[in-house]
Amino acid sequence: MKKADILVTLDSGYIAQLCIMLCSITTSNPDLRLNVYILHTSLDDDDIKAAESAISGFGEIIPIKVSEDEFSDAPTTDRYPHEMYFRLFASEYLPEDLERVLYLDPDVVVRKDISELFELPLGDNLIAAATHVGKTFTHLNYVRNAPQYDIHDEDKPYINSGVMIMNLRELRKLPIREDVYGFIESHKGRLFLPDQDILSGLYGSRIMILDCYKYNMTERLFLLRKDKYPWLTADWVKENSAIIHFCGRNKPWKQGYVGKFGECYFEAERAYLQKIAQAE
Question: Which pTM value belongs to this model?
């Protein structure tokens, strides 16, 4: 089996989605041996056991508890809690001999082979991730984030941080804490999606772009571009997108969901429930 290092950061409110996400990896990538690092402040033993059940036979869960005081002064919202910042310091929390890790939000499902992500040549790039915005919004985000940061120019991408390959070897060479705290301080009141603003604003010149349609497909991306690209149909997504990301407030597990890809989530949920039932 091929080794695959995964990173997630979350609180107990997303344990159910985490389990479904992890099971979806094992279902679509049975040849991967997973090491799943969970950065958290408050998960209990039952939460960890639930995550372990999701990948039983395919790897192990490695919980890493972070101090509750971390990022106590950083901007947060109900959608963007303190846990989202932990990924920014992944290079400090994870084992020193780990050179790269695939970060995944718990609200993704993996439907196809993702093994190439663990072998992608990163060079001196710090991150590989997808962008969901075109030239206009890339420029607007540059204007909003650029002051005092010459290393970010308006041609560099604004990424979605839900799926990222993190080059830990290169990240460890940087003064991450100094960079992050400095950016937060100088951009108070202007951080819209804080972790994405920080990563794009600080390190945009060293980000490798992933295919968003394959590795970070979303409902919103589909709605905005399906008329522009006739090939981008719901059937195409179901057949070709390796990772579907249910970001934003429109979630299939919440009341009022409206979207084209809910069945992809429910399919992954059924696979997880079936696995749990068989283990009992």
Answer: 0.91
Give dist(CA 194, CA 76) in Å, integer.
Answer: 8
What's the mean pLDDT in 195-208?
Answer: 88
How far apart, in whole angstroms, are the C-alpha atoms of residue 34 and residue 118?
11
171-196 mean pLDDT: 84
CA 64 to chain centre: 17
C-alpha triplet 201, 123, 94: angle, nearest 5°: 70
Tell me 87's DSSP state: G
Residues with Cβ within 8 Å of residue 148, at least 6 apart in sequence: 186
Can you give the C-alpha Rg of the chain in angstroms? 18
- In sequence order, what are the beta bridge partners of 102? 6, 165
- What sign does the CA torsion over 196, 198, 204, 208 have? negative
In terms of pLDDT, which residue wins out, 69 or 239?
239
74-99 residue pLDDT tens: 767 666 677 778 899 999 999 999 99
Q: How far apart are CA 76 and CA 97, in angstroms?
A: 31
Q: In the numeric block, which tokens belong to residue 125?
A: 């790039």
Tens of pLDDT, residues 55-67: 999 999 999 999 8
Backbone angles phi, psi at 253, to 5 degrees: -90, 5
Q: How many CA atoms lie within 13 A of 261 on its CB side?
A: 31
